[in-house]
Write a structure and sequence with these properties.
Layout: H1 4-21, H2 24-32, H3 37-60, H4 64-93, H5 98-105, H6 108-120, H7 126-143, H8 148-172, H9 180-202, H10 211-235, H11 241-248, H12 251-263, H13 269-287, H14 292-295
Length: 299
């Protein structure tokens, strides 16, 4: 097999993963039109838990539950932060157009770099500082005269991205022997537990849900949390992690296309300008971030 073939497969898988996960902005938006946040959040991660845990049981059979018991305590902080991040994510999706939601959430790359600076003593080059400046400017444009709903929604999405990065950072620091599928299952179960507690506290769970939102929950949970991760981890077998991450920054483009095609929604001129600034900043950070080997002077 030539060198170009694995790379091409990696590109296709990475783009497929991005296209799949971007459907969350549409399926969740439609579902939240007929469900309150409490009902939607519970049903979404009930479906995600069934898919992820079911896949683990089928693939590992009797070995899943002993492994879950062995690693559950170590994975709980990751799952807890991920659950809060997920709740904020869907709250933000309910307030914003898909493209703006996706752009605001892509600030997770910026938080990843900041976490690297704090915990790994990394340094930023001039292009990376320029990227941060563009992100800040873009968010300011989105907020400016964007209305309270856009301002609050964007803030919620950025906070969700920040917590999601910390959760992923904890996942990276987990025992390397822990199966990635197990981490996905534990994270889904953590979100389901938070969703159940949230619904009990608010007492707003609605069991009489309309058919269309229920269908969107089923489709969204299948395409986003499950199939997109299958493609994502498969892509990592053919491409470098950094290159896959760069391709996944095309997520806002897919979200905008889906939003226009299925919802007839597209950002206004000011919000679109802010989105483009944020995307440009994120891409600068991604494209000009040195690889670890290069930063350390390695080959």
């Amino acid at each position: 097999m030539s060198v170009r073939q694995p790379h091409a497969r990696g590109v296709v898988l990475a783009v497929a993963s991005t296209a799949l996960v971007a459907t969350n902005y549409i399926t969740a938006k439609i579902a939240l039109g007929g469900l309150n946040l409490e009902t939607f959040f519970f049903l979404w991660f009930a479906a995600g838990t069934v898919l992820s845990v079911g896949h683990q049981i089928v693939s590992k059979r009797s070995g899943f539950f002993p492994e879950l018991a062995r690693h559950a305590r170590a994975l709980m902080p990751m799952a807890a932060l991920g659950a809060v991040s997920n709740l904020l994510f869907f709250a933000g999706v309910g307030c914003l157009d898909p493209a703006i939601s996706a752009i605001c959430y892509r600030t997770e790359l910026v938080f990843s770099v900041l976490l690297g600076i704090v915990t790994l003593k990394e340094r930023l080059n001039q292009m990376e500082w320029a990227g941060f400046a563009l992100v800040v400017a873009g968010l300011a444009v989105i907020y400016y005269r964007g209305g309270a709903a856009i301002g609050v929604g964007a803030l919620v999405m950025v906070l969700s991205a920040m917590l999601g990065v910390v959760s992923n950072w904890l996942a990276k620091r987990a025992d390397p022997d822990v199966d990635v599928g197990l981490m996905v299952a534990v994270r889904c179960m953590g979100s389901l537990a938070l969703a159940a507690a949230y619904a009990l506290v608010t007492r707003r769970f609605n069991a009489d849900a309309p058919p269309l939102p229920l269908a969107m929950v089923a489709v969204g949970a299948l395409l986003g949390p499950f199939l997109s991760f299958v493609c994502y981890f498969a892509a990592l077998r053919y491409m470098d992690f950094s290159k896959v991450a760069i391709l996944r920054n095309s997520e806002p483009v897919f979200a905008a296309l889906y939003g226009f095609a299925f919802l007839g929604a597209f950002p206004g001129g000011r919000q679109l300008a802010g989105c483009l600034l944020v995307l440009a900043g994120v891409l600068l950070v991604a494209l000009f971030r040195p690889r670890p080997a290069e930063a350390a002077g390695g080959p």
